[in-house]
Amino acid sequence: MHDFTESKEKAVAIAIGKKGFNRDTAFEHLNEIESLADTAGAVIIEKIYQELDSPNKATVIGKGKVEEIQALIEEKGISLIIFEDDISPTQMRNLENTFQVKVVDRSGLILDIFAKHARSLEAKVQVELAQSQYLLPRLTRMWTHLSKQYGGIRTKGPGETQIETDRRMLKIKIQKLKEKLEDISVQREQQRKGRKEFTQFALVGYTNAGKSTLMNSITDANVYVEDKLFATLDTTVRSFNLPGGAKSLISDTVGFIRKLPVNLIASFRTTLAEAEEADILIHVVDVSHKFFREHIKTVNETLESLKISQKPTILVLNKVDLIEDANDIRAIESEFPMAVFTSASRNINIQKFLSVIQEKSEEQSKILSFILPYTAMELISEVYSNSDILSRDDNDEGICFKVRVKNDKLKILEHNLGKYLKK
């Protein structure tokens, strides 16, 4: 993978669209590539959009654009070409041979950013796996100088090329990374088991929507916040108290983005499992963004691909302070009547947000009060295993419990303690 961290590289961003595609949308996509490039450490000098009936099979772009970009490279010292969409390994090789500069596509750029921002062992393994899977079909262009045939000791057999050897080694590496990730997943699952009694919320949303800032506003998480795409990758789980006093948990998950590389989603399954395990999702949206509706659609599609789109969800339209026209706010309120409008950075409407998640939490559970006699002490473990203890008072009759029980645990508790529960 390319390393953008040492200095700002001058780059050209290119998007291809079919004739008739909305140009405003096309350039918004290029703006997103510009933000990604900035996060990676490159600066976009020129944005190019070309409409084609179909991409050129050899070079993606047309002959005229190839010549135009070649002139830009020579005139402005461009060292990097970034394509807004993914391109084939053959197209990438042909373009690098033509331009004699680096060429990356959307997936390659996002993977570089993830590699740069990975901090924990889990995140590093996830990114390394995704990178390795991305590189596997692209080894040809990396090994074009090694066309000599090798044979003999330490090779698969007579006539094996260097690229075949490297491909085989990379497949072994991928398998080992998958096994390592599976071990981490098992450890994560053990950690999650201890949280079952609490209502669990998971923040989801488009990258840079303000999830980490919102989390910091209701907990003491001190999650790293920066106005860049994918500033944080590692999942953070923190406890906080709902307005009613019940202890709950909230996790901050990795941000989504259009055309998030498939390998990356697969690799980050252990991180995204926090969202899968959550009782309630909190979908955070940067409502000040011109294309926030497209962002909502992207997140919803990603949640659907993860098979968690049916979970109870609170829509939070964040960064409302950046909308200057009150008429615009009223129109959005009419369009999204169930949404909570906030500004996490300025602490606007955070109490309203807490009230909403209190209500949502209560919908997912039931509060029960009952006395467990001392003659039934063998059932006390059932109480602690299947409920959140709000209060306990030991008196002459037995133990007086007030508990919150999640809906999915209610039948278990009713089956085991039915005759002691107050209806």
Topology:
Layout (H helix, E strand, L loop, with lengths): L8 E9 L5 H18 L1 E10 L11 H14 L3 E4 L5 H11 L2 E3 L1 H12 L3 H15 L3 H4 L6 E2 L9 E2 H32 L5 E7 L5 H8 L17 E6 L5 E6 L9 H6 L1 H9 L2 E7 L5 H14 L7 E6 L7 H10 L4 E2 L8 H14 L1 E9 L6 H7 L1 E7 L3 E9 H11 L6
Parallel strand pairs: 1-2, 1-3, 3-4, 7-9, 7-10, 10-11, 11-12
Antiparallel strand pairs: 5-6, 8-9, 13-15, 14-15
Written description of the protein model:
With 423 residues, this protein is an alpha/beta fold. The protein folds into 4 domains: 9-113, GTPase HflX, N-terminal domain (Rossmann fold, 3-Layer(aba) Sandwich), CATH 3.40.50.11060; 120-191, no CATH class; 195-362, 3-Layer(aba) Sandwich (Rossmann fold); 365-420. The protein is 44% helix and 21% strand. It contains 15 helices and 15 strands. It has helices at 23-40, 63-76, 89-99, 106-117, 121-135, 139-142, 162-193, 211-218, 262-267, 269-277, 292-305, 326-335, 350-363, 380-386, 407-417; strands at 9-17, 42-51, 80-83, 102-104, 149-150, 160-161, 199-205, 236-241, 247-252, 280-286, 313-318, 340-341, 365-373, 388-394, 398-406. The strands form 4 sheets. It has a 6-stranded mixed sheet with strand order 8-9-7-10-11-12, with helices on both faces. The chain has a 4-stranded parallel sheet with strand order 2-1-3-4, with helices on both faces. The protein has a 3-stranded antiparallel sheet with strand order 13-15-14. α4 runs antiparallel to α5 and α5 runs antiparallel to α7 (162-193). The longest helix is centred in the middle third of the chain and has 32 residues, at 162-193. It is elongated. It starts with 8 loop residues before the first strand and ends in a 6-residue tail after the last helix.
